[in-house]
Specification:
This protein is an all-alpha fold. The chain is built from 6 helices and no strands. The longest helix is centred in the C-terminal third of the chain and has 21 residues. It is globular and about 55 Å long. It comes from Baryphthengus martii.
């Protein structure tokens, strides 16, 4: 029903905007997606990671602005690239890179400011020295 979908979307958005919320949501969705072996599981894994990335790249209706949303969520997306748990690191990196690509396509200026500049800052510092 529509009311349940709206309630779930609202709760998901609230969680994403909290510190550590992106990692908690990604972990919850990926663990809830199950597992398995073989090509079918791998394809399902890709689809799940892509779906999570689309959710992260979309600004929820509860946010005042896309700029505020990016300011809160993008640093958490970049943190997904540094997860040390070997079991989930690959999936988290897949979600982070797909989210980054989606945001660059949909909101290039905000993606540059909140994702690309922080990601490339160490490289730029080395090239300037």
């Amino acid at each position: 029903p529509g009311w349940l979908r709206r309630l779930c979307g609202h709760l998901l958005s609230q969680r994403l905007l909290r510190p550590g919320g992106v990692q908690a949501v990604v972990r919850g969705v990926l663990e809830g997606a199950g597992g398995g072996a073989g090509a079918e599981a791998a394809a399902g894994d890709w689809r799940t990671c892509d779906a999570v990335a689309k959710i992260l790249a979309s600004c929820p209706q509860q946010c005042l602005s896309l700029e505020d949303y990016c300011g809160l969520v993008c640093p958490q997306i970049l943190d997904l690239l540094h997860v040390q748990d070997k079991l989930t690191a690959h999936q988290f990196q897949r979600v982070a890179t797909t989210t980054l690509l989606t945001m660059v396509k949909e909101h290039p200026q905000l993606a540059e400011k909140h994702l690309l500049q922080p990601l490339l800052a160490p490289l730029l510092r080395c090239s300037e020295a």
